[in-house]
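Same chain as my last thread, 359 residues:
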Amino acid sequence: MRLLLAGGGTGGHLFPAVALAQLLLQQDKDAAVQFVGTKMGLEAKLLPKLDLPLATVGMAGVVGTGWRGKLEMLPRLLKSMLQAKKIINGFKPDLVIGVGGYSSVPVLLMAKLMGIPYVIHEQNAIPGLSNKLLGKWAKRIFLSFADSGKGFNAEKTMLTGNPLRSGLNDVNEKIDVGGTLLIFGGSRGAQAINKSVVEMLPLLKAWSDCPNILHQTGEAELEKVRQAYADAGFDPQQVVPFIDDMAAAYDQAKLIVCRAGATTLAELTACGRPAILIPFPYAAGDHQTANARTLEQVGAAKVLPQSELTASVLFELIKQMSGNTELLQSMADKGRSLGQPGAAEMILDECFRLCGAKG
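reply #2:
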C-alpha cells in the first residue's frame, strides 16, 4: 500500500501519523509512505530524524490572524491545493489519511477532486471544523473518543483509539517511588505551564522530598526557563526543548504535569501514568477540557483549569500526590484501563481493506 499522510503542525497530529507510517513499513516490505505538512510544523524537524519523507505545502492557519488573515486564506488554500496536486501525482497514493492540522485541508480537498479515497483520524473528543467538513467525503473516520462520533456520519466512523509511538506499551506498570516529576506542554511547550513552574521553583527547592524533574519547555522559552532553574539552585540540564524518547521519560516518571491533548492522554493511558492535567483553554471547542474530564471521571488524573493555575496551587497538588504512592498507583491502574492498544493495527487493517475494495 502506498499511503500519503497529510497534516501535522504539532505532536498531537503528527505522532499518530508517525506510528501508522512506521508500522506499515514494518508490516509490508513493498509499502511506501509520504508525509505532507508545512515547513513551519514539527514535522519539518522530526521526520528527517526518523528517515520519513516529507513534502510541504504553503498552507497556514487562520485562527487568531484577524480579518486580514482570513482574506488571505483563499488564495493560499488554492496555491496549496496545486502544490498538493503535484505531490499526489508524483507519489500516486492508494489512500490518503488526514491526521489533522491545517496542512491536511488542501491535500484532502485535492484528493477528493482527483478521485483518490481518503480517511480521517480524529484525535479529540470534540472534532475540529475542518474534519467535520472533510468528513463528508471520507471513506472512514477513525475516532479516539466515542463521543467525537456525534459530529460525523455514524456509518463511516470506527472507534480505534490513538496510534502510539513505539515503546509506549512497554512502560513499567509499577510506579517508581523515586521516579521523576515530568513536566511538558506539548511539542511546542506551554507558556502558562512554564511560567507557573518557574514561579514554583522556590517552593520546590524548599521541599525536602522534591523529586528529580524533567521539564520540556519547547524551543521558544528554553533559555529563559533554564536560567530560572539555575537561579533557583536547580540543574538547568533538567530543562530540555523536546523529548525524543518519550517512552523512557514516561517509564521514569511517577507524576506528570501536562496539557490534555488527545495524543498525550492516549500515551498516559497506554503507559499508566498519573497526571495533573492543565487543559489549553483556547483549543477549538475547548476540546482539551473535554478530553481531560474523561480521565478525571475514572480517577486517572486531576484537572487543574488554567484559570485556577498558580504556583502555590500547582505545588500543593504535586506535594499531596507525589507523596502518596498508593494514590499514584491507583491512578495509574485506572488510566491504563482506558488505554486502547492496537489502534495503529486496527486503522491499517481497515486501510488495507479499503484499498482492496477500491478497484
